[in-house]
């Protein structure tokens, strides 16, 4: 069997904070315990928010923590044609359809929420005729492309995945995936030929990732990734979900909330050892 391969894959849309530090440390520690390799991947598909200075800061912050990785580092912004190819494979299976609904349209018609708490897409554009789709595409209406989850799940059948926990060396457990909780998710946008769920599955397969370590807040997303792995004939991986770093209000840290960055803490005199103690590692 090939040696274990893991990855830490931040989005450079801001500076890394303590939550990222924990995730990175968990990944490198797991790779060491499994006798494998930890890779660094830059998930920069969001052209508007991801900045070169944030990417450079990722390298600097991780090196400051004492972590290293093989070169070259994969940058998702350089792989858009591969994601478009994967989307076209789904389109050829009749599993991808154009959606012209705005966020307001969806919110007004949604009857529930997905695991992230967002309004669940009601499937409005799934029922458009081919003529209507062609007319609106030719007219240049704002569009995104969604997975027909019902058809996709019917095609894939019963889905399971392997979870390891609470530590990376524990006995694997088999879990059932429930992608129906997500409805018809967006996998491709007009301006960007991919979305997170699609690109992460394509890249995990391309990089021969065997184990994915991620925070518990991303556990539900595994449902979709397992489904896409099956549809795209990608290799399955083992999953390990680690705890989150939270603030005084017991909310997870985030860039959008202005959680203190590693750079801020370093400027205040923190050391890598302080970071490790702060995240309980």
Structure characterization notes:
The chain is an alpha/beta fold and 281 residues long. The chain folds into two domains: 1-72 and 245-280, HUPs (Rossmann fold), CATH 3.40.50.620; 79-207 and 223-231, Glutamyl-tRNA Synthetase, domain 3, CATH 3.90.800.10. Helices cover 36% and strands 15% of the residues. The chain has helices spanning 18-34, 52-64, 80-92, 103-109, 130-139, 149-156, 196-206, 222-231, 262-267, 272-278; strands spanning 5-8, 37-42, 74-75, 96-99, 144-147, 160-163, 173-176, 186-189, 211-215, 238-242. The strands form three sheets. Strands 7-6-10-9 form a four-stranded mixed β-sheet. It has a three-stranded parallel β-sheet with strand order 1-2-3. The chain has a three-stranded antiparallel β-sheet with strand order 4-5-8. β2 (37-42), α2 (52-64) and β3 (74-75) form a beta-alpha-beta unit. α7 packs across α8 (222-231). The radius of gyration is 20 Å and the shape is globular.
Describe the SSE topology.
Blueprint (H helix, E strand, L loop, with lengths): L4 E4 L9 H17 L2 E6 L9 H13 L9 E2 L4 H13 L3 E4 L3 H7 L20 H10 L4 E4 L1 H8 L3 E4 L9 E4 L9 E4 L6 H11 L4 E5 L6 H10 L6 E5 L19 H6 L4 H7 L3
Parallel strand pairs: 1-2, 2-3, 6-10, 9-10
Antiparallel strand pairs: 4-5, 5-8, 6-7
Keywords: Aminoacyl-tRNA synthetase, ATP-binding, Ligase, Metal-binding, Nucleotide-binding, Protein biosynthesis, Zinc
Protein name: tRNA glutamyl-Q synthetase
Organism: Devosia elaeis
């Amino acid at each position: 069997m090939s040696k274990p391969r893991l990855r830490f894959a931040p989005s450079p849309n801001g500076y890394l904070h303590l939550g990222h530090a924990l995730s990175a440390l968990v990944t490198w520690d797991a790779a060491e315990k499994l006798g494998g390799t930890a890779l660094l991947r830059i998930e920069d598909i969001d052209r508007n928010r991801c900045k070169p200075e944030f990417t450079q800061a990722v390298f600097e912050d991780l090196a400051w923590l004492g972590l290293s990785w093989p070169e070259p580092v994969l940058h998702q912004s350089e792989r858009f044609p591969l994601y478009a190819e994967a989307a076209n494979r789904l389109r050829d299976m009749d599993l991808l359809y154009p959606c012209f609904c705005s966020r307001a349209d969806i919110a007004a018609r949604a009857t529930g929420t997905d695991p992230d708490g967002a309004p669940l897409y009601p499937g409005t554009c799934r029922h458009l005729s081919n003529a209507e789709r062609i007319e609106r595409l030719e007219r240049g209406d704002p569009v995104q492309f969604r997975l027909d989850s019902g058809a996709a799940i019917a095609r894939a059948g019963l889905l399971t995945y392997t979870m390891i926990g609470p530590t990376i060396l524990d006995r694997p457990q088999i879990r059932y995936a429930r992608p129906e909780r997500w409805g018809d998710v967006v996998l491709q946008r007009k301006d960007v030929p991919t979305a997170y769920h699609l690109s992460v599955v394509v890249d995990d397969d391309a990089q021969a990732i065997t184990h994915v370590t991620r925070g518990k807040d991303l556990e539900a997303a595994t449902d979709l990734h397992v489904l896409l792995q099956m549809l795209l004939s990608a290799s399955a991986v083992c999953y390990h979900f680690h705890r989150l770093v939270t603030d005084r209000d017991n909310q997870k840290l985030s860039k959008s909330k202005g959680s203190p960055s590693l750079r801020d803490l370093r400027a205040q005199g923190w050391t890598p050892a302080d970071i490790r103690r702060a995240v309980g590692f």
